[in-house]
Amino acid sequence: MSGAADPQRPGAVALCQSALGDYRLQRYPARRNEQLRAWTGADILLLDAVAALPSRPAAALVVNDEHGALCTALAGCDIATTLWTDSALSARASALNAAHNGLPPPAVVWSTQRPEGNPQLVLLRIPKQKALLEQQLATLASMLQPGSLLLAAAMDKHTPAGLERELAHWIGPAARDHGRLKAHLWRVPGGRQTAPEARDSSVEYACEALGMSLYAQANVFSREGLDIGTRFLLDQLSRLRPVSCAVDLACGNGIIGLAALQAGLAHEMWFCDESAQAIASARVNAGRLLQTLPHGARFLHGDGLLDWSGPAPELVLCNPPFHIQHTVDDFVGRRLIQQAAQRLAPGGALCMVANRHLDYRAALRRGFRHWQVLAENRKFRVYLAER
Fold first, then answer.
1. Among 383, 385, 376, which Cα is nearest to 344's?
2. 97 membership: H or E segment, kind and range
3. Distance (Å, whole) CA 362 – CA 103
4. Where does a domain end: 167, 189, 211?
5. Both 161 and 209 in a single domain?
6. Is 327 a domain residue?
7. What is the pTM of this model?
8. pLDDT digits (tens, 9 = 90+) for 137-188
9. Cα–Cα nearest to 223, from 198, 203, 199
């Protein structure tokens, strides 16, 4: 297997070699000097396992394919593929990598929906969030029929404790293959007679800042309580001027945008996130709050503001993610700053909270004519940047 990206080219396409064939893949979003590949050892184990099957099914369900390595390889073997994902970025990556190889994109089912039918083959990349894994396994347990097969894989350093117990509880006894490429693969035959009763994976917590309970689905950031960075940003909202149209960018369950609406900071608020479950959670919470407020809420599930088609906002509020999967990284935050600078109305402002150890000053200088540190404490800074 080869394929380290060429550091001289932004987002270089690299060759992924597997037992199902060789495919040109690219990480999405692409960035300069990318050293990470668009696939992992866990992806290779899954593809090799499919190649070793005595017969290949006509169709397969792929769960949590991060950059489309699994969907692309299956499509290259004429296996009709459905991608079940929470991530708009992953769906876009899968479509782009299919196009790189002259293949059709996978059908996409969002994590808030149930895939149709009873798949004979399921390829599952174990997700980071345990609550999401339990939700997915509970759904799969009710779908898999006798003769079906679940192939699950994870990188060793990211394998959650008790994974085999979870697989056995929901699907059936799991056989673990010998590890390779710093990853392991589990084979779980489907079709148990009685599937366990599914638990509700959503949670609620009392939010004093809003005076109401907030709802969150399984894969939502800080789903069980108010994040301390968000709390620090909320403390600064009274220092901002009211506007007509604002955006809660990377909204999660919508707490920042809802607090701004409650404070009369905007007449219309757009809630934007790449997570389907975040958008669904924000919809529920906005529905609760707006019963008592004469304001409007709109929702955009996608790659930040890349597909923005609404009116130019006058204010963007943001607590950006600071991880790419399991790695601390400021790349997502820098992209969101750039998108805000491109979409804001002239004279509009970005108000963003960030960890002190992540330095966004260069990105703010590139995108805005003026910026300042509005507030800071030992852990966070709140930036205010004006276009």
1. 385
2. helix 88-100
3. 39
4. 189
5. no
6. yes
7. 0.93
8. 999 999 999 999 999 999 999 999 999 999 999 999 999 998 999 999 999 9
9. 203
